[in-house]
Automatic annotation (TrEMBL):
PANTHER family: PEPTIDE N-GLYCANASE PNGASE -RELATED (PTHR12143), PUTATIVE-RELATED (PTHR12143:SF43). This is Alpha-1,2-mannosidase. Residues 272-714 form the Glycosyl hydrolase family domain. Transmembrane segments: none annotated. One of its GO terms (molecular function) is carbohydrate binding. GO terms for cellular component: cytosol. Residues 4-167 form the Glycosyl hydrolase family 92 N-terminal domain. GO terms for biological process: carbohydrate metabolic process; glycoprotein catabolic process. Residues 717-738 are annotated as: Disordered.
Length: 738
């Protein structure tokens, strides 16, 4: 499947065909751009590398700061001043994006460093990125988990050079630069150098080697060479005192001469960076082909874990790329914590739980459960050392600035892992931190007043108590199970009995309608509060725009008034944003799987496409892409509840190779290849390993057991799924272990 991956999908402004039918009524408040980059990556690895233009938000591309509507261009075409390391994937307004250790291959004087050159002949595949600069130098980059290898092919020149800027970081937009607080670098031998920069409180070390030891090796400061210099040290750097500095190799080249740069990175000093390089790339002096092949093999296993049957190559590309984007982040960096001395799991670029907890984390758990456990332990270590379980966590020191997005979101991840009984987690230790985290920030108001504002945090916290009681039951703490039950039932305090919707409050990137249809643990109670099945379905129909006219999407630089009109629609955000991405499945709890089928069909077939504009919004670390993977398979994980809802697949057949060695095959009967704007298909019956399955859901354990599902489809809604409702419980239905 890797040959079908197109890393360029999502790198430019959304350019999907005009939305049709129901999809034309949905309103997109977030930037209409995927914010992905095509650089070389490793599955869940530390390092990425890509061409650098300084554009928002990943450092790659053509756009300026954009938080809503179509992005404004700051470059007319693809340009780059070099190639940087460490990029986010698909995220939005985090602002400080890494892009450290820029490498610029030059034929010009050092004074020209920072000039933007046209980029042509770009190529990208999982683990590999290549481009030719306007100066005629061909660049190729591959990466390992903690390393990168660059290969440059030069034209003939009397004094070619490879310049590494240790001072660069962040973005070339107003207030987007990252200034190192401290730095040092030194030459340690022919063709070898090392250094460390402290950025946003994190010490990032590098060991770098040049394959041609005959080239001159020089340090430079403020674009001036330092002949004979072997070390540079900087302390207490301020934005006003920063001058660029770095390292350079230079020498004459023949036509087609190739030079490699090998980088090892670490958050624990240059010596460990060197160890990482040698472990992943060997002793050198060259290792590009070896590293590229090994990374391609790993990506092949990951992206090849799910096979879909379709005659449409474009649709296969969309799926393979979605799966690829789902497996880039978070960054797992074992034994690399810079903030506490012990070895063990460490992770960053959890950006953010609000984006990934519903879809991407369940996908990791299914495909690479060992990595899910590693991430869970890393989160617990963060809680142990920093006092809270993160909503967002970057390669930076500082308080969790993303807590306003949500509360207690990691709890859903741990509840699912606990129900699956995956090995490698100390559940007593986990319970301590899960419980403690529920009482921080908005948790105090929740305990004292029965609700917290923003009101969506009341839902988060009530569900967090429900999820944590699953862990408490596992370890046999009946007192906590009894205590958490009434607290979990406080979800009802978030709603108005008069409207059946959430109470008036502030909402993050949406309104009360967008947050009112999340899949809670007590959906039966939620539907009753709305006035019963018919009333609840009526509210959903209004929310999803049944019978409504098409909307006008925000354009470039929309005005506050334009955005206010859009928000006043109280309409589904499509897959442009995350708050209501699970809402299409709320119909199933009211006995209307046909409505779920119709809404999901329109999203899957219309809001993901090929080309650089093929995503409807920020991919957000694979949050949107993993939604597409699940939805197109005909499954949807109800995060934290160990439940997968069933729906019409978008593929004639799919085979998912689970991380535990089993496989889940989903076959269909009566399948018709779907078309954008065409009719949906509806489930008529489901058979699990040949036995009729009347209920429209599987437990997480059943999904992870694998087996074979046969889904019979038809052009009209049937009776399947209308009687048996997905699980709903006021308190967790688990047995307390004594």
């Amino acid at each position: 499947m890797t040959r079908h991956v197109d890393p360029f999908i999502g790198t430019e402004a959304t350019a999907l065909p005009p939305q049709q039918g129901l999809a034309a009524t949905w309103w997109w408040p977030k930037p209409q751009v995927g914010n992905t980059h095509p650089g070389a990556t490793y599955p869940l690895g530390m390092v990425s590398a890509c061409a650098y233009s300084g554009a928002y938000p990943t450092g790659y591309g053509r756009y300026g700061l954009s938080t809503e509507g179509l992005p404004e261009e700051i470059h007319e075409r693809t340009v780059a001043s070099g190639f940087t390391h460490f990029q986010q994937s698909g995220t939005g307004a985090i602002r400080k994006y890494y892009n450290y250790f820029r490498v610029t291959p030059m034929l010009q004087p050092l004074d020209d460093l920072g000039e933007l050159w046209d980029v042509v002949d770009e190529q990208a595949e999982p683990g590999y990125y290549a481009a030719t600069l306007e100066n005629g130098i061909r660049a190729e980059i591959t990466v390992g988990p903690k390393s990168a290898v660059h290969r440059y092919t030069f034209p003939s020149h009397r004094d070619a050079r490879l310049v590494i800027d240790f001072s660069l970081g962040g973005l070339a937009i107003p207030y987007g630069r990252t200034v190192p607080l401290r730095a040092h670098l030194q030459s340690i031998g022919p063709g070898q150098a090392q250094g460390e920069i402290v950025v946003e409180g994190a010490p990032l070390a590098v060991h770098v080697e040049c394959s041609d030891t005959r080239w001159r090796q020089l340090l430079w400061y403020d674009r001036r060479l330092m002949p004979g210099g072997t070390r540079l040290d900087f302390d207490r750097i301020r934005p006003t005192t920063l001058r660029p500095f770095g390292l350079m190799w230079a020498g004459p080249t023949e036509p087609g001469q190739v030079v490699e740069l090998r980088f090892g990175f670490s958050l624990r000093g240059p010596d460990q960076a060197k160890e990482n390089l040698e472990r992943e790339c060997g002793p050198g002096p060259t290792s590009f082909e070896r590293r590229r092949a090994e990374t391609a093999t790993v990506w092949g296993r990951h992206v090849g874990a799910i096979q879909v049957d379709t005659p449409d190559e474009d649709r296969r590309t969309v799926f393979a790329t979605a799966l690829y984007h789902s497996l880039i982040k978070p960054c797992l960096a074992p034994d690399e914590s810079p903030f506490w001395p012990t070895d063990g799991p460490f992770a960053y670029d959890i950006a953010t739980m609000w984006d990934i907890y519903r879809t991407q984390l369940p996908l990791l758990t299914a495909l690479v459960p060992d990595k899910a456990v590693e991430l869970a332990n890393a989160i617990l270590h963060i809680g142990e050392e920093e006092g809270n379980l993160p909503i967002g966590y970057r390669m930076a020191r500082g308080a969790d600035r993303f807590s306003r997005q949500g509360s207690a979101l990691a709890h859903t991840f741990f509840a699912d892992l606990c129900r699956l009984d995956l090995e490698g987690i100390d559940w007593d230790w986990a319970l301590v931190h899960l419980h403690n985290d529920l009482r921080r920030t908005y948790g105090e108001d929740f305990l004292l007043r029965g609700r917290a504002h923003p009101i969506s945090h009341t839902l988060d916290l009530a569900f967090g108590y429900w999820c944590t009681s699953v862990v408490a039951a596992r370890v046999g703490d009946k007192a906590l199970v009894d205590q958490f039950g009434p607290l979990a039932a406080r979800w009802v305090n978030a709603y108005s009995a008069r409207t059946g919707l959430l109470r008036d409050s502030e909402f993050y990137e949406g309104g009360r309608w967008n947050y009112s249809f999340r899949l809670q643990h007590d959906m039966a109670g939620r539907i009753a509060l709305a006035g019963g099945d018919e009333a609840f379905v009526g509210m959903l129909d209004r929310f999803f725009g049944f019978g409504a006219p098409p909307v006008t999407q925000p354009g470039v630089a929309p005005t506050p008034e334009e955005m206010a009109v859009g928000y006043a629609l109280d309409r589904f955000e499509g897959l442009n944003n995350e708050p209501d991405m699970e809402a299409p499945w709320a119909y199933m709890y009211a006995g209307r799987p046909d409505r779920t089928a119709q809404v999901v069909h329109d999203i899957v077939q219309q809001q993901f496409g090929t080309g650089r504009g093929g995503l409807p919004g920020n991919d957000d670390s694979g949050g949107l892409s993993s939604w597409f993977v699940w939805a197109s398979l005909g499954l949807f994980p109800v995060a934290g509840q160990n439940v997968f809802l069933l729906n019409a697949p978008a593929w004639r057949e799919s085979v998912t190779r689970l991380g535990n060695g089993r496989s889940l095959t989903i076959e269909t009967a009566g399948f018709v290849e779907p078309e954008p704007g065409g009719p949906a298909q509806f489930v008529q019956a489901v058979y699990r390993d040949g036995v009729p399955l009347e209920r429209p859901w599987l437990t997480g354990n059943e999904v992870h057991e694998g087996g074979r599902l046969l889904v019979e489809l038809g052009p009209e809604p049937g009776t399947w799924g209308t009687t048996h409702r997905p699980p709903s419980a006021a308190a967790p239905a688990v047995e307390v272990r004594r």
